[in-house]
Design brief:
Length: 203
């Protein structure tokens, strides 16, 4: 048998699959950007300079269901629409000015948070599990967002970082509830409609 016949054909790597975006992915990214907008319809509960909103739930779901890169892209699409002036944030806020206010760090944290959620939940294309999904939404959807949002808030409001951390503790109960909801929705969806996780199995 010749060397040419025995030489294996090049195969598409998992990393190339993760980067590939098709029409279905674009539609799903758009859907999650729309979900973020819907979650922003209720007026946020004002707590100091940063409101309590439901939109962190969208960050958790985007990462868990779309995966790391696609989840992050859905947040970027949403924030671009906000920057263009659409009033999609809680309370009908929008425009470039929100990216220079006390909530700016949290907004940018949504992008990285969604990425981290997806990276943990869909680690290595493995089958989704309750425990890994729970860790993903807690680390990416809460810890990462706080780690970026709190220092930026402290810098913009010119108050001590420690005081800002203490003030931010009021967000914890609501975010834990959203984390539970995100885990339940994700694990229910993966059983009822596994095709929603096609991007994970493709890789």
């Amino acid at each position: 048998m010749s060397e040419q016949a025995t030489t294996p054909r090049p195969t598409r790597t998992a990393s190339a699959s993760r980067w590939r975006i098709d029409a279905t992915d674009i539609a799903r990214i758009a859907v999650f950007a729309a979900i973020m907008a819907v979650l922003g319809l209720p007026a946020g509960i004002a707590v100091g300079s940063v409101p309590i909103t439901a939109q962190t739930l969208g960050v958790m779901l985007a990462g868990a269901i779309l995966g790391a890169w696609r989840g992050a892209l859905s947040m970027i699409v949403f924030l671009v629409l906000v920057a263009l002036g659409l009033p999609l944030l809680a309370g009908g806020h929008g425009g470039i000015g929100v990216f220079f206010g006390p909530s700016a760090g949290y907004l940018f944290g949504w992008i990285i948070g969604a990425f981290v959620v997806g990276a943990i939940v869909q680690l290595g294309g493995r089958k989704l599990t309750w425990w890994r999904t729970s860790i993903g939404v807690l680390v990416g959807g809460i810890a990462v967002v706080y780690a970026i949002g709190i220092p930026v808030q402290a810098a913009i409001t010119h108050q001590p970082l420690g005081l800002t951390v203490v003030q931010s503790l009021i967000f914890i109960p609501g975010d834990l509830i959203k984390a539970v909801i995100a885990v339940v929705i994700t694990m229910t969806l993966v059983r009822a409609y596994p095709r929603a996780f096609r991007s994970r199995t493709r890789a």
